[in-house]
């Protein structure tokens, strides 16, 4: 007998160009202008771009140099993370008026499980509309939302009517919605995986659905099982109010490219200090250290080592980071270095039994 999908009411709220929108709100002179938070005309990386800048192809993680090239009139502003955290906290309090099941993904987005909510409202769509209105009225910013029966579909849906919009994918619409969706829009399918899927003749959810579990596992490893299930609307991950991080890291982009390993070691010591501070604040330790290196040609390289014991001390972190730095010859001058710690002592072993067959969908569910 086919197992029905677990019918939860999940909302994914995503703030619209959050950092840039906060800057435009606080400084009216920036409203309507192409804006980049972070980076500079010569160096650094864009953390966020206003919608006016996005029209010129400016995106987060783009170099400031390329952002300026694409949009000559762009305005760069320094990020103010304390201010973003302050605004994020206000938004979080609005969420908590509706449910305690709030899982923040970052400062600007979160999942809410409103299956049973504090307002006694049976419509997740109406709750999302009300939340977005309150954010606008009480905070002064716009947000978009996606509503469906699980986190995966809600996350995709929140992108549909951005900015300042929302989309509900009801249970009886899920299969058609996913079959018609381009695979590049599937949450968890990045650029590299998208190209691999294209090479295998997979362009839409429908194409993906035609592939067997064995085929997808052969070509995508463990992720193959994930793709096999989500295209059928199967995603059992619950909204976790106390979301446990998988890694903790710190990194620095330099004003001038570094070619001397002596200077790099000085920077690594500073990064290790910051990482230790973050670890102690969260009371976390880990076993796997990863050194991130971004070269002057923007090529990215990572080097990792897993220890037999948990560490959080900066001296041990730095010692391993140095070892990784000297592991092989650098390919070019370096513009960014980062250290992260994974395989944390907060991680819990979880084995979720996921049905690997097509499921029927219950239709009578008020969204």
Instruction: Trace the largest sheet across and list its strands.
Output: 5-6-1-7-8
- CATH H level of the largest domain: which superfamily? Reverse transcriptase/Diguanylate cyclase domain
Describe the biggest sheet? 5 strands, mixed
Strand residues, percent: 15-25%
Shape estimate: globular
CATH topology of the largest domain: the name is Alpha-Beta Plaits
Instruction: Give Rg in angstroms.
Output: 22 Å
| Name of the CATH first level of the largest domain | Alpha Beta
Question: What report would you give on this structure?
Answer:
The structure is a single chain. It contains 13 helices and 12 strands. The protein is an alpha+beta fold and 367 residues long. The chain folds into 4 domains: 98 residues, Reverse transcriptase/Diguanylate cyclase domain (Alpha-Beta Plaits, 2-Layer Sandwich); 63 residues, MutS, DNA mismatch repair protein, domain I (3-Layer(aba) Sandwich); 57 residues, 5' to 3' exonuclease, C-terminal subdomain (DNA polymerase, domain 1, Orthogonal Bundle), CATH 1.10.150; 98 residues, DNA polymerase, Y-family, little finger domain (Dna Ligase, domain 1, 2-Layer Sandwich), CATH 3.30.1490.100. Strand 10 and strand 11 form a beta hairpin. Helix 4 crosses helix 5 and helix 12 packs antiparallel against helix 13. The longest helix is centred in the last third of the chain and has 22 residues. The protein is globular, with a radius of gyration of 22 Å. This is DNA polymerase IV. Its main location: cytoplasm. Keywords: Cytoplasm, DNA damage, DNA repair, DNA replication, DNA-binding, DNA-directed DNA polymerase, Magnesium, Metal-binding, Mutator protein, Nucleotidyltransferase, Transferase.
